[in-house]
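In the previous lecture we treated proteins in isolation. Real proteins rarely work alone, and many bind small molecules. This record shows how such a complex is specified: first the sequence, then the SMILES for adenosine-5'-triphosphate.
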Amino acid sequence: MSVSSPDVVQKLLVRYERLIEISQQLNSTLDLTSLLKQIVSAATELTDSEASSILLLDDISGELRFELASNMAPSETDNIIVPLEGSIAGWVVTHGEARVIQDTSREPSFFKTVDEQLEFRTRNLLAVPLKARSKVVGALEAVNKVAGERFNSDDIKTLTILAGQAAIAIENAKLFQQSDFMSEMVHELRTPLLALKTSTTLLLRSDLPGHRSSEIITTMQGETERLIQLTNEYLDLARFESGRAKLDIRPFELSRLLHECIEIVQPQAAEHDITFLKDAREVEVAGDRGKIKQVILNLLTNAIKYNRDNGQVALRTELVDESDLQMVEIAVEDTGYGISKENQRSMFQKFFRGSDTANFTTGTGLGLVIAKHIIEGHGGLIWLDSEVGLGTTFFLTLPLANPEIRPLTAL
Ligand SMILES: Nc1ncnc2c1ncn2[C@@H]1O[C@H](COP(=O)(O)OP(=O)(O)OP(=O)(O)O)[C@@H](O)[C@H]1O
Ligand SMILES: [Mg+2]
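The predicted 3D structure, ligand included, written as tokens:
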């Protein structure tokens, strides 16, 4: 062991005390997003670096992806896949060992793409594996030691200890997320399955009158549809949550799509004498047409399902400025029962269904969660405004295909 000055020893003691404190915090967090935030800020603090990042191996594809970085917005980290060969993080993950690069400009295996994309300069780098129960699940990186210093052996030790605690906390949060979602999902599947089971038992009875059997078959058809919708929505959501869902972004004309959506839901609206008002002019949007259609259809179906007989649904578009970017805002307005302030907060949560509405309509409570993933995946926003007794308006924004040549006026 090298002999250290009292100052250095004192600094190390403070650091280890902080490490213990942070480890305790990590162990008590089960929400993955806030956990990752805590880990990167701890890594930056404990190693005196400019920035830190977490990369995780995707369970299914095996790809190594940036999960969170203190110097990048989440939208910037989303699409960066880091190669397992030809990157420091890849080396750390495949070898399960720490690695320090004191000068990235002299290191051929440094993966430059991230710096180039972010216009950031990584001078030096310390990367350690995230190991949970002897399995490597990703890497934790600290970038640019402050004041022009070099990463030393104490930094390696500290970051390795932090990574060990972080990896276990990440695995626990993931397991918690899965079990939570799975139990809710199984619960949702049980209702249509039980209805199907009861129906088949009834159908087998020899004393069943003929007209009853066709009624039962209609019920079975409805429940089967529900099961299909539920499993499709579940798969959609699982793809979005694991980052495997890819958007196929191309320019398309929005008002034609809105028209198509109204045509589809028209028969459902007619059953309740609900009329439509459409006020949308032609505008080219950059987006995944199929996925946006899914969002609009869900908003329109909701506006019909949660409306009153003889009600109205209005669909409007407008050009707006959103943090210096020109976007199109779509509004879906209904004359339904509205949503209480308390329910408004839960609107984009998985399986949430308003207790007042859940009794008289069918639905999975996943539609809006998926809509949020899709719209945010396009760099847009989705929100609502509602007045109990009057109605609800859902708003969403999408990027224009040619923002610079559009005049900034209402459509
Ligand atoms: N326009 C609306 N007016 C009143 N309540 C609404 C409206 N839109 C949604 N809600 C409430 O929000 C809940 C969640 O909506 P969401 O679209 O996510 O699920 P769902 O319609 O129940 O099922 P599905 O997954 O089939 O769309 C609904 O169950 C309903 O209680
Ligand atoms: Mg819905």
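Summary for your notes: The chain has two domains: 6-176, 248-411. The chain has a mean pLDDT of 88.
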